[in-house]
Amino acid sequence: MPLTARVRTRDGWPVAHAVVTLTDAAGRQVLRVEADAEGSVHDPAVLAPGAYTVIVTAVGHAPAAAGALVTDEAAGVQAGTVTLARQGGAELPPPGPWTVDPAHSTVAAVARHLGFSSVRGRFTDYSARFEVAADDVTASRVEAEIRAASIDTGNAARDTHLRSADFLDAGRHPSITYRSTGLTAAGPDRWTVHGDLTLRGIRRPVDLDLTHLGTGPDPWGGTRAAFRATAELRREDFAMHYNQVVQAGIAAVGTTLRVELDVQAVRGTSLPAG
């Protein structure tokens, strides 16, 4: 068993086609092997006893290196599991397409009311997809569409008013859309998503503060990832000027909205039943 290794991300996902290089004590390259689609390496070459350095590299990931000592030709180098971090130290789910599952996600907006309390609403009809880029994770893309008329605050009269031209103007502008323009790492599991939000037919740049909460298997045989994201919107940026002034000059509705997203996404382009 001369050289074996398993290359994984911090979340335990295989790093397909990572390259494992073995150098001797003089720094000369002795062996160079590409991992398979499951991130596994096995090369039968016989290695002479001595000290070696195992170097593992992969596009979009920071390299890793470790020392190895071969005392017996039959034993070789068993590198075990080598963990690679995303370039820059930030993690996202495995590359490829992902589809947001509305049944296990929440798209909410919070507004200040009377200057001292909050009113919370949520949208019940929306779809979203994103693509995690393999080589340069900052090139990942997000697209979402929300049906404006699906706003639900738990009060029918208020919801009707929110759908009117005073606020969402859902009759003339039935869709709210968001399309990303870039991604910036803000920490090991945090990102800033840069994008354009179109609301009431008006497009404005809006950044989302995104946290990756983890990735793992689901009960239906798929893979899921969870995220939390927030953003602040100014109503006037989208021509929502309606307000009432109550006593002491306090506005009935705050000038800003806080968007709160709790999202589950399924790996792939379709959603499972259940």
UniProtKB/TrEMBL annotation:
Pfam families, A to Z: CarboxypepD_reg (PF13620), YceI (PF04264)
Family to which this protein belongs: Belongs to the UPF0312 family.
The Lipid/polyisoprenoid-binding YceI-like domain, residue ranges: 97-266
Give the protein name, as stated in the record: Lipid/polyisoprenoid-binding YceI-like domain-containing protein
Q: Which SUPFAM superfamilies match?
A: Carboxypeptidase regulatory domain-like, YceI-like
Q: Which domain of life is it from?
A: Bacteria
